[in-house]
Design a protein that fits this description.
The complex is a heterodimer of chains A (629) and B (354). Chain A is α/β, with parallel strands linked by helices and 629 residues long. Chain A contains 31 helices and 14 strands. In chain A, the strands form three sheets. In chain A, strands 1, 4, 5, 6, 7, 8, 9 and 10 form an eight-stranded mixed beta sheet that branches. Helices cover 36% and strands 23% of the residues of chain B. The chains are: A alpha/beta (629), B alpha/beta (354).
Amino acid sequence: MPNPFRKRATEYISEPVALLPLVSQRPIGDFLSKDAEAIFEKLTVIVGSPGCGKTTIARVMEYDCLFELSQNPDHNKALTAVLHDHEVLVDGRPGLLAHLLPMTSDFRAIWELPYTPQLKSSLLRSFVQSKAVLGWFRRLVASGVALSDIEVLTRRDTESASVIHQAQTAESFRDGAREIEMAIFKIVTALVAPNVEDLPKEFLDTRYDVFEFLTGFRLGGQEVSSGGSWTLKPLVIIDDAHELHPNQYVQLRDWLKSRVIGVSRWIMCRPDVVAPEDFREVLVEDNAESSPLPAGSSRGRDYILRLMQLSSRETKKFRPVARDIANNYLRSMPEISNRVSDVERLLATSSMSVAAGQIRHIREAIASRALESKFGDGLLKALEERIPASADDDERAQTLRILIERERNRTPQLALIEPEPLDEPVSDDRQARADVVDGARIQLLHEYRRPYYYGLEKLADASNANIEQFITLCGALVDVVAAQVVRGKPISLKARIQNDTLQKKARDVMSEWDFPYHVQVRELVELIAKRCLEVTLKPNAPLSDGANAVGVPQSEFDQLHTGTDRLARVLHFAFAYKALNLVPHYRCKNKDWCLLELGGIPCLAFGLTLGRGGFIEDRLSGLQSSAGW
Amino acid sequence: MAAPLITHRDEDCLTFFHEFFTKDKKVLYLGTLGFGDTCAYFPLQLIGVPQIEFVFLIEVRQDVSPILQQMANRNRQVLETAMHAAGKAIQFVEVPIVADDTAIIAGRSAAQLCTPMIEGTYSDVIVDATSMSRGVCFPIVKAAYARATKDHQWNAHVVVAGRAESRIDVTHMSSEAPEYMHGFRADMGVEGTENSIKLWLPQLSERQAKGLNLIYEKLTPDEVSPILPFPSHDPLRGDRLMREYQVPVLDEWRVNLPDVIYAHESDPNDVYNTICRIHTTRSEAFREAVTRPTRTILSPAGSRIGSLGMLFAALRLDLPVMYTDAMGYNSPMTALPPLLDDAPEYRWHIWLKP
């Protein structure tokens, strides 16, 4: 049976009819509910790693999707309701006319032209505006709106600009945009760029600034007049802004910040192009518990910066989103959804304890260590009482093993040579923390292959709040479910099958890495993973559930420069392809750290914790020399 | 239908050079300093041309294995020694391939650098594609072709040499983002072609499936006709490639097997003629039948000689070319391979007459 999880929706499904039923309304609702009005008035920069859901939000905002939802809300009733609540759909009709404009190599190529920075900046602005105008019209025409039924709305005080840009009719306005687009296209794609003096004079003398006077499009006419004419607010979504030269990105951002601009504008990009100080500001606000600002955005400036990646406090928020998406996908697999409609029911969460003989082996090791350490029964009992009652026998035994090692480390050396066994623990912890028990589970995974990665929560956590990654991992599990259905086996996957499937998938994904610098990225990931594993498997589990990151001083990280540092180029691709997660400005021990955290895929592959915060201190220079570069 | 190419192969190339490049011809040779010793073959054969200047481009990439750099340095030494002994001018010029933000700028750099040379006071330009990466070679040949089109007394030549089996184990570190080759864009990307019906002709080659898939995803073509190398030095190569590409060809690109194109591995005429025939007949068929524009997009991969057929078709028919360039090269080799005295098995000269 075909597995829809094998294809990422927004990247490969272009038709709204096919796409809309798969979309979860939660991230869109969250996105729109923060700074609800401002995101359509001010420049909004949306930052997130590939696959985090940026493009899905943008795609849903596009006119063809909104139009389809307005005509057939049954495609996704929950999504329709969210869009109504936030006035993206108004009275059952689209209120926005959005166009997604990817920054292709044509835009980047403007930076290479042998012109003054001012001229290059002007060409970039004009190219963006002309393509946006053409995109808006293309959306409307494709939806069956005749050009004669479109009125271009402009600010009242800009009549002369309207005349210059031929905005009197929709057709002349579009033709003007076509001329600008073609003129710049010829310059950009010329084998050798023309000399400045050879550029058309009228082109150099006239500024093409339609964003400044355009306020909307009014639709009327026969085809659309059933409910009378209505107005659409134009929205341009600059996608993949990280493809621009860093200086171009700054120019574009600064220009779009202008309050004179009347159209809504969003920029979408990867985290690596955002200035460290901007990132810091948002994170500080994000981490401030009492902040009146919505998490993940900053309003104290002339534009909004919105982080799509969830902070450590928010990762649980991804779980319902993951569940929604998985269930939406499952609906297109009737062989499964007719029997089970909730993905959670496919993934058994009952744990799978190690064999009784293995538990006995652990207990024997504990007894031997206790004897060696002169720990009496009373002390062992006191330690065991600290372990949560909910822990299974094997978890309990392994946790006790960790606690004994910790106790041993805290016990004064002299006490160990006393003739009488110790009956009271030196430490005065009341209860072992949950992450110590989790650390014990990870140790059991490595020592006895006890399943660790199972259940929807683990699956969502392994996805790093990244929808694309979630679909990849979930797809592997659904493949096994489908095979079990065909073979007439139970539909729910046992913990061991889930664990083994996810770890194998992760290893397969890593072995298929083929992006630039993937050899070096793999070396770096293996290096970090090896060091994290050493710490995680230490008998006393010093970081409880272990480590999955290397932390370097933030100040050192800020000095990296992509142009000259090889490590910077390697990290650039490691972040872009989610081999590593960048966690900047992580506060620990009163220091500002930048964590290079292993992505969910390497964590699965190497059997490491999916939690955040366990890291090994190092410096970038140390990493470089360890990698032998 | 585009005019056939004027080509010479093997020893005929040398006969042509001897007879054509007489004393009255002022010739510019543009080549690339490569890893393989084949990069020195044509320069050493052309050393006897009375008025010839040699310019070698050094493609600058930030990440190239030291062993490969050593090979290139050895070739440079061979060339410098031979040129100085013959009293010929030789120049090495660096071409940046990757910008500081990892964007690929190969084509624009090469065109900017070489066009003024091509526009100089020469009567002929010979572009040696033997070791040039495609992103550098295609724009330079286009600039030479443009000059020849303007001035019919002026001549553009392309030469290429290749061995049946490479002795150098190199893996390309491909750029993550496919893009149109600089100068080979036609009108793709402007408003009028947004809804065009796209036929994609990718050249299949070993270990290129990932890069070609990226191109497919970016291009979203309506039809795909992959080009398989047949006849080939190894008669089973085509079969092996079909096995390697089974999943993309059948499941992802949805290719109808009768649409697979077979073209000679080491004869650029075959690739050129095949593309010209397909494009022309398709355009004629569609012209009367559909209102949407139709476009044929080429993607070269694998052997340099086969790619030249694509280059000439793109030049003659103004076809767009989408590709991924190499950001660097890695090699597991630990020792320099010996220099070979025997001539490369495949040698071609193509006289680009507009």
